[in-house]
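This section describes the prediction task in plain terms. A model, or a person checking by hand, is given the sequence of a single protein chain and must write out its three-dimensional structure as a string of C-alpha cells. No templates, partner chains or ligands are provided. The sample shown here is typical of the held-out split.
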Amino acid sequence: MKIAILSRNKNLYSTRRLVEAAEEREHEVRVLDTLRCYMDIATDKPGINYRGERLEHFDAVIPRIGASITAYGLAVLRQFEMMGTFPLSESVAIGRSRDKLRSLQLLSRKGIGLPLSSFAHHVDNTRDLINLVGGPPVVVKLLEGTQGKGVVLAETFKAAESVIDAFRELGADFLVQEFIKEAGGSDVRCLVIGNKVVAAMERKAKEGEFRSNLHRGGTASLTKLTPQERATAIKAAKTMGLNVAGVDILRSGHGPLVMEVNSSPGLEGIENATHKNVAGMIINYIEENAKPNRTRTRGKG
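The expected answer:
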C-alpha cells in the first residue's frame, strides 16, 4: 500500500513510529508537511501539489493535524477524501472533536457521562454560571486550549469570577466545569482503534498540579479498565465518528466521565506505559479497512 502521513514534523515520536510500523509491513510511506500541500480545487480532477510536485494516488492518509492548523489541515484532508483516498479518520469527525463545545453536546445527546458543564461568552450573572455546575471549586477551560493550556482550577467564588472576567475581557469562549475531586489529579487515556480499546494508561498530575497532561509533567502508568470505562471510551469515539481516538476519562464517584476525545492522540506516552505496539495496530487497521472511495462523507461537511 501507499500511505501518506500529514505531519508538520517527521521527527516527532508518533510520526516516526507510524513510519516504522508501515515500513515493517513493506508499505510505501511518505510524510507530508500539511502546510506545504496546496490544492487544485476548481477542476474535474481534484489534486494536491507538494513542493512543486503533483502527488500521485495514495491508498490511505493518516492525519496528524495539530490544533493550531486545524482549518487548513482539514481542507487538505478533505481534498484527499475527494480524490478517493481512505482517511484513518475523516475530516468531519476530526472537526467535531476539535470543537470542544460541539463534542460535549454530541456526547451529552448520546447519554455519555460528562462533568457538569456550562458554557458562556457573555453572561451578566457569573455566579449563576458557577452555580450551574455545583459551585466552587470549578474548572474554567478555554475552548481553544490544548495540552492543559488555558485550563484553570478556581477554588472559590471570587477566584472563579476573576478568571471568568479575565477570559471575557479577552473575548474568549470558555467552559465552566465541575471539579472531580475524587479523581485525585489523575485521569485515564483510552486508545481506541475501530471498535476496540487497544491500550489504556492512567495519567497522574505532578505534585501541586491538577492537570495530568504528560506535557505538563504528569506521569503515566498501566491501568486496568472496568467494563463500563471500556464501553464509555468506545461509545465516545464512535459518537465523534473517529476510527482512532484518545478518550480521556475521569474516574468519579458516579462512574466514568469523558473529559475529551482526541483525534490525534500521541503514541509515546501510551506505548511506553503499556509496552504495546499501538503504531502497528493502527497500520493493521488501515490494512483491513482501506478501500478506494470508502469515505462516508467524501469531503462534505
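For orientation: Residues 92 and 297 are 8 Å apart (CA to CA).
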